[in-house]
């Protein structure tokens, strides 16, 4: 079973805001089921030692070494891992995230954290809730990238339409007059509204997609009363009573893949349209200046390609043949500046970017 700690947007903003003399970023691919439980810990220990060799300040090195040793010695922690362990440390504090994405091993030391690989986790998350809804049964299923799907206990969730109608105050016909098909439709909508109300206890404040699994007419009736903004347009059609949690998870992951593919396609189309209006660019120098002055609305950035160098205070670029002590490079700094100006950053693969570029930006207005 995977054990994940996905960073929130607030945590990402706190990390990109950190600028200190010694920021250590360690990405360690981890194995969940391994006959040698210490393998992950040894891999991290070797990376941590390499990082410490780059820290020339003695006091900072001692503090970091103590933090790493404390993590290395925590046997319980190493028993529960995901696909990649991300460790971000300064001499004062260490933060770790166990993420379900398989990220490349990396060790970097600089005055900022290397956040770009971590952004992939929150760009296209594979987490979702599935609402399996029928007149005879209701269940909320949590879907994660690799763990088995699980039913979620929801306080006050109606058991069925019949049970809901039997509740006190629901015995009379709707409005005391509607009967037949119209009356039944009103009953179902009331049932759906009760389901939506109960789900707020779980979904309120979340940013996780909700996928509806239902047949008509209950699917349309639920959508008419839904209050959760994360409900996806595509649904799992048919009666979900005949689908296991595992079946729902398999279909939900396919829905998520299509949802994100469509989102990326729409963004590329918007980029092309905005570029013709002068409000988009794939030129790295232009993007760096726009990021510096807070005019980037949305940035797509290549997650795999490092570009060594620096971005000056005015946004001008200085390219280098190698990174300074493995420090984050130009793309990382551009992404950091976009995030700090409340822009959106999507970490994508090179094939998803136009013209073979390393980044593409949609601007807030024509510069």
Topology:
Layout: H1 9-16, E1 23-29, H2 39-53, H3 58-72, H4 75-79, E2 84-90, E3 93-99, E4 106-110, H5 116-123, E5 128-133, E6 138-143, E7 150-152, H6 161-165, H7 180-203, E8 210-214, H8 218-225, E9 236-237, H9 245-276, E10 280-281, H10 284-292, E11 296-302, E12 309-311, E13 317-319, H11 330-340, E14 344-348, E15 359-363
Parallel strand pairs: 5-8, 8-9, 11-14
Antiparallel strand pairs: 1-2, 1-4, 2-3, 5-6, 6-7, 10-15, 11-15, 12-13
Shape: globular
Mean pLDDT figure: 89
Order of helices and strands: HEHHHEEEHEEEHHEHEHEHEEEHEE
Largest beta sheet: strand ordering: 7-6-5-8-9
> Percent range for helical residues?
25-40%
Tell me the major beta sheet: 5 strands, mixed
Category by helix and strand content: alpha+beta
State the helix count: 11
Measure the end-to-end span: 49 Å
Overview of the molecule:
With 367 residues, the protein is α+β, with helices and mostly antiparallel strands. The longest helix has 32 residues, at 245-276. The strands form four sheets. It has a five-stranded mixed sheet. Helix 2 runs antiparallel to helix 3, helix 7 packs across helix 8 and helix 10 packs parallel to helix 11. It has helices at 9-16, 39-53, 58-72, 75-79, 116-123, 161-165, 180-203, 218-225, 245-276, 284-292, 330-340, and strands at 23-29, 84-90, 93-99, 106-110, 128-133, 138-143, 150-152, 210-214, 236-237, 280-281, 296-302, 309-311, 317-319, 344-348, 359-363. Strand 8, helix 8 and strand 9 (236-237) form a beta-alpha-beta unit. It is built from eleven helices and 15 strands.
